[in-house]
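for the recovery benchmark. tokens below, seq after
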């Protein structure tokens, strides 16, 4: 009796008779020998149909299979280092083949296609090897992010998606009609996390978040996933120590589990092996100085203009990339101007024009992967900030309550899953890091 196996485990079955169920990924026709590359979701294996060893009707099936045809194949596993596949080094000598469906002419060929075409066919593109590798790594990144928190005393507390008020910037809200009232898709779970820490101490939320970002960049999605830890009695330094350990652990987990996928993506692994604590810390002031110095040394006027910054301005992606390139690990940038950050961030004592915020910039130009801060915990100061930025205090009455009943210093941050996946996988654009990207001009499929 053949054993039903996952191709990913094929190495454990050398010499045994196995059954695999899947789809034809590619084929090489050598007449009497048909080399079928079969994928089953867990891997890709070369299955060889040899005319002499198969009943003629089965050999005809093997010859007729088109790309993405579905089938059940039984045969004997044999080690052969030349055999392609993921993992390679083993092939299946077919003894029987059962057809499920001959697939119609498949739109995605094993050749180059334009990216818009591929995005239109995303429901099929997810089957391609590179996409398979990326989305497997994404799944591991998410589980590693959650497991680390679960193992370190953080409790998952879910936060709502339908919310009555802005959590971040009021210009990027998706508004919906909530039985005649206006409501918004969550931009963050942070404000609710701040309520939850007073019950549980260290918490996190994980879920989709929404930002109506009316710009087309390779780092922005309308719908993205964020994990947000929030901790009572944490200051900015505690936050950075936790983040550098957390992110390093996640990168190392991906390296342990996904050598094969990283190879498919041609990722330079040495860059990831280097991700261990500590990460450098620089202030916004220092970052601006470094940028000014860099711009002064550059002759190309276009590049000079791109890097231009005056104190007080927010960093754009050229600035973030230039700063990150000065380090070979992620770098923390602290104490941004209060004016470019959210209303809830704690001002620096004696220097309220900057706040106790920290962004983590990924190396190799992948930009900001986490954003966080100490939160204002003084009730009067928070009320004052709410009034200053002109959001309605009635909507934030519950949030102000948190500062009234046992307020404590606290901090937290949000990590964007897609930017983290882009960085770890080495992808130039964020659109491939999520199964179905939502962008300015894309809501299909
Ligand atoms: O810096 P952001 O806006 O921070 C917050 O939302 C805080 N409330 C988080 C917190 O302190 N609990 O977003 C956090 C991260 C960014 O660093 C980035 O990785 C990602 O979320 N992000 C996006 N990713 C993809 N597309 C977008 N439009 C994103 N906006 C933010
Ligand atoms: Mg941010």
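predicted aa per position
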């Amino acid at each position: 009796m053949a054993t039903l196996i996952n191709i990913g485990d094929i190495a454990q079955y050398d010499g045994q008779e196995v059954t695999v169920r899947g789809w034809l990924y590619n084929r090489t026709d050598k007449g009497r020998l048909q080399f079928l590359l079969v994928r089953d979701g867990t891997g890709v294996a070369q299955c060889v149909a040899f005319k002499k060893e198969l009943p003629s009707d089965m050999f005809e099936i093997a010859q007729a299979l088109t790309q993405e045809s579905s089938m059940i194949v039984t045969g004997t596993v044999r080690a052969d280092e030349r055999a392609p596949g993921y993992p390679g080094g083993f092939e299946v000598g077919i003894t029987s083949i059962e057809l499920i469906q001959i697939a119609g002419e498949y739109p995605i060929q094993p050749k180059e296609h334009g990216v818009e075409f591929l995005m239109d066919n995303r429901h099929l593109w997810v089957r391609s090897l590179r996409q398979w590798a990326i989305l497997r790594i994404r799944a591991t990144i998410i589980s590693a992010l959650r497991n680390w928190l679960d193992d370190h005393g953080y409790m998952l507390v879910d936060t709502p998606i339908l919310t009555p008020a802005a959590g971040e910037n009021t210009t990027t809200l998706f508004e919906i009609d909530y039985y005649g009232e206006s409501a918004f898709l969550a931009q963050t779970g942070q404000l609710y996390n701040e309520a939850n820490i007073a019950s549980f101490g260290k918490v996190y939320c994980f879920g989709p978040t929404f930002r109506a970002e009316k710009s087309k960049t390779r780092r922005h999605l309308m719908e993205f996933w964020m994990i947000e830890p929030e901790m009572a009695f944490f200051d900015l330094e505690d936050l950075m120590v936790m983040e550098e350990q957390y992110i390093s652990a996640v990168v190392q987990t991906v390296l342990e589990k996904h050598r094969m996928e990283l190879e498919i993506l041609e990722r330079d692994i040495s860059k990831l092996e280097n991700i261990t604590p500590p990460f450098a810390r620089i202030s916004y002031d220092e970052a601006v100085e470094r940028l000014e110095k860099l711009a002064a040394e550059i002759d190309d006027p276009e590049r000079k203009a791109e890097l231009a910054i005056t104190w007080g301005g927010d960093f754009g992606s050229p600035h973030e990339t230039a700063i990150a390139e000065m380090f070979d690990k992620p770098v923390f940038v602290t104490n941004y101007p209060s004016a470019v950050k959210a209303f809830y961030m704690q001002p620096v004592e004696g220097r309220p024009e900057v706040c106790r915020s920290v962004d983590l910039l990924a190396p190799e130009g992948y930009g900001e992967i986490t954003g966080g801060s100490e939160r204002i915990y003084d009730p009067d100061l928070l009320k004052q900030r709410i009034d200053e930025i002109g959001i309605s205090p009635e909507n934030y009455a519950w949030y102000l309550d948190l500062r009234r009943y046992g307020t404590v210093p606290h901090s937290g941050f949000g990590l964007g899953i897609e930017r983290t996946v882009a960085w770890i996988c080495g992808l130039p654009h964020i659109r491939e890091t999520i199964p179905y990207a939502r962008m300015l001009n894309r809501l299909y499929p």
